[in-house]
Design a protein that fits this description.
The protein is an alpha/beta fold. Helix content is about 40%, strand content about 15%. It has 2 domains: about 140 residues, Aspartate Aminotransferase, domain 1; about 220 residues, Aspartate Aminotransferase, domain 2 (3-Layer(aba) Sandwich). The strands form 2 sheets. A 7-stranded mixed β-sheet has the order 2-8-7-6-5-3-4, with helices on both faces. The protein is globular, with a radius of gyration of 21 Å. About 50% of the residues are buried. One of its GO terms (biological process) is amino acid metabolic process. This is aspartate transaminase. Pfam families: Aminotran_1_2.
């Protein structure tokens, strides 16, 4: 039987970017000890107090169908959080609860794009972005953010790619680069969106992981609330990756239609998960800072390690749980470097090419193992890079 072109074409006929990760997992399954610095999975699990709240809710009977838009209490809680942090008026009618940030990304593009429409996204990008756009029948078009610009997307480059487009997807703090978009960058993006009548889809799942500067949601900029769909999630801020609880914040009319979409697709999020999210958000910034602290600490450790060598350069590591390392001095592509590092030292990092053309010659390191293991792996990576750059054999 024939499968649809939409489902068979999600990756555009190429790799989905996860080859190195899957190779590392195969090695682990074979009993090989691998230091995994690949995906954004916390090395600490969901806080016991959140699990206790989830357990109380489930045992209390909140295990049936929950309201499709989300419980009133969670929608109100998310709205209050967003309004307090952005200054932009937000009510439950601006909020849809989704099964994680990925479902929110898919829903947001469903709202913005018709089949055949062009949807812009910034390269480097999280690996699912192009497939998410193809999944709604739209055509992905990359906007290059250059390493030479600190991976800040330039509004003039966006403008040059905007002909025929209906939406733009951005992500700050950024995965994979760790860059936080500055006010000037975001104001320039906002102007392009207004001039070109684009929906702006803003992936803000790392908004609690800021090491330098400040997070600015473009929805808070003048004239942007009516054309911005913000994606949020409990996954990164509260180490609840497996709980699959996220949201979209946007104009009431868009949210109303997205509720209809959810009725015909996900049919909501389990009520006991939503109750746990209400509890977690109620702990305020203290818990968020506790969850973020290991990544801030490891980022500082990485600064000291990388400052003592010249084979690897660190891109601006201003936020999120990743380091983007420039390894072009080795003469290797990111893919070749990552493959050789895995095979020779059993350290798994993601090739920059997994995240687009702009990240070629880089590797992404997730700061998601204990400090001592992280330091050891990063020092080994630097030594390996130095050997490659000098042309000397490993040893």
């Amino acid at each position: 039987m024939r499968l649809s072109r939409r489902i068979t074409g999600l990756t555009g006929g190429g790799s989905d970017g996860w080859d190195l990760f899957l190779q590392a997992r195969r090695m682990i399954a074979e009993g090989i000890a691998v230091t995994e610095l690949t995906i954004g999975e916390h090395d600490t699990r969901t806080h016991s107090s959140i699990l206790d709240a989830m357990d109380r809710s489930a045992r209390g009977g909140h295990t049936g169908y929950a309201m499709v838009p989300g419980t009133a209490l969670l929608r109100d809680t998310v709205a209050a959080r967003v309004q307090e942090r952005t200054g932009q008026r937000t009510t439950r009618d601006n909020v849809l609860i989704t099964p994680g940030g990925q479902a929110a990304l898919f829903a947001a593009h469903s709202a913005a794009c018709d089949p055949g429409d062009t949807a812009l996204f910034v390269d480097p990008y999280y690996a699912t972005y192009p497939g998410t756009i193809r999944g709604v029948g739209a055509l992905p078009r990359a906007v290059i953010a250059r390493a030479e610009d600190g991976f800040q997307p330039r509004p003039d480059v966006i403008e040059a790619e905007a002909d025929g487009a209906v939406s733009l997807l951005i992500n700050s703090p950024n995965n994979p680069t760790g860059v936080v978009y500055g006010r000037e960058t975001l104001e320039g993006i906002a102007k392009v969106c207004q001039d070109r009548d684009l929906w702006l889809i803003s992936d803000e799942v790392y908004d609690t992981q800021i090491w330098e500067g400040a997070h600015l949601s473009p929805r808070a900029l003048p004239g942007m609330a009516e054309r911005t769909l913000v994606v949020g999630s409990m996954s990164k801020s509260h180490a609840m990756t497996g709980s699959r609880c996220g949201w979209i914040v946007g104009p009431e009319a868009a949210i109303s239609h997205l509720i209809t979409l959810a009725t015909h697709t996900t049919y909501g999020v389990p009520g006991f998960v939503q109750d746990a999210a209400v509890f977690a958000l109620g702990q305020g910034r203290d818990l968020e800072e506790e969850i973020a602290a290991p990544f801030r600490r490891r980022r500082d450790l990485a600064w000291h390690i990388l400052a003592g060598q010249n084979a690897v350069r660190l891109s601006p590591a201003q936020g999120a749980m990743y380091l983007m390392l420039d390894i072009r001095a080795t003469g290797l592509s990111g893919e070749a470097f990552a493959t050789a590092l895995l095979e020779t030292h059993h350290i798994a990092v993601m090739p920059g090419e997994s995240f687009g053309k702009a990240a070629a010659g880089h590797v992404r390191v997730a700061m998601t193992v204990a400090d001592d293991a992280f330091v050891k792996a990063l020092k080994t990576l630097c030594h390996f890079a130095a050997q490659q750059a000098s042309g000397l054999p490993e040893g």
